[in-house]
Amino acid sequence: FKATDFNDASGGPLYLQLHRRIAEAIISGRLKPGDSLPPEREMAAQTGLSRVTIRKGIEALVASGQLVQRRGSGTFVAPKVERLEQALSLLTSFTEDMARRGRQVESRWLARGLHAPAPEEVMALGLGAGDRVARLERVRSSDGVPLAIERASLPSAILPDPEVVETSLYGVLEARGLRPVRAVQRISATNPNAKDAELLGVGAAVAALRIERMSYLGTGQVVEFTRSIYRGDAYDFAVELKLAP
Ligand code: 16G
């Protein structure tokens, strides 16, 4: 961009002109997924716009997910994510889903430990007085792209040692004969909050899916109560429907 790109008089507010220019460059492919934008002060020098105007012009593109900002390393054109089709009728784990697609799994731990349960967890897990809860909170990525944030709560009777879970929770449960065999899931539309948007590397104005899963052993005992935020631009959930009886 150069100073002559921006017209004070007729083109509307300068930050919107910048916003439009960047959006056009992304659509036309002149800026490609993963490309970095020059630092704010460099853009200001190139365009003659103030740093405040530059920041404002970029802000809305970050909120809409077209640009991503990584603390300390700058502003980038959002990487293109490949959409994944996820069957809704099978009780699988994230690790299994990705392995089936031949993809690598990475988990970034946000929290993993035993806690006194919150009222919501007591109710969901049917905990007794004095029972503890194992909490596993992680950003789940595949091939370097964050796809979901999962916050799982399990009765400590099921998982007394949450720190043993390194990669697959269902893997650990399976080895102990505690793999859930049934689950109920609820999916609803949401926008991620600012913190979750940053963890997922998306803008806070993008669409996301909130998924709650309650899973059970064959005996009916609750195994997990998991609340997740899945990226709306990365997932298609698909299910086969049958004629109602
Ligand atoms: C899935 C489940 C989650 C479960 C996790 C275990 C949803 C929508 N999905 O992602 O409830 O805790 O698998 O995965 O909640 P893991 O065995 O790879 O740790």
From TrEMBL:
SMART domains: HTH_GNTR, UTRA. Signal peptide: none annotated. GO terms for molecular function: DNA binding; DNA-binding transcription factor activity. Residues 12-80 form the HTH gntR-type domain. Keywords: DNA-binding, Transcription, Transcription regulation. GO terms for biological process: negative regulation of DNA-templated transcription. InterPro entries: Bact_HTH_transcr_reg (IPR050679), Chorismate_lyase_/UTRA_dom_sf (IPR028978), Tscrpt_reg_HTH_GntR (IPR000524), UTRA (IPR011663), WH-like_DNA-bd_sf (IPR036388), WH_DNA-bd_sf (IPR036390). Coiled coil: none annotated. The keyword Ribonucleoprotein does not apply. The keyword Protein transport does not apply. PANTHER family: MANNOSYL-D-GLYCERATE TRANSPORT/METABOLISM SYSTEM REPRESSOR MNGR-RELATED, MANNOSYL-D-GLYCERATE TRANSPORT_METABOLISM SYSTEM REPRESSOR MNGR-RELATED. This is GntR family transcriptional regulator. It comes from Paracoccus caeni.
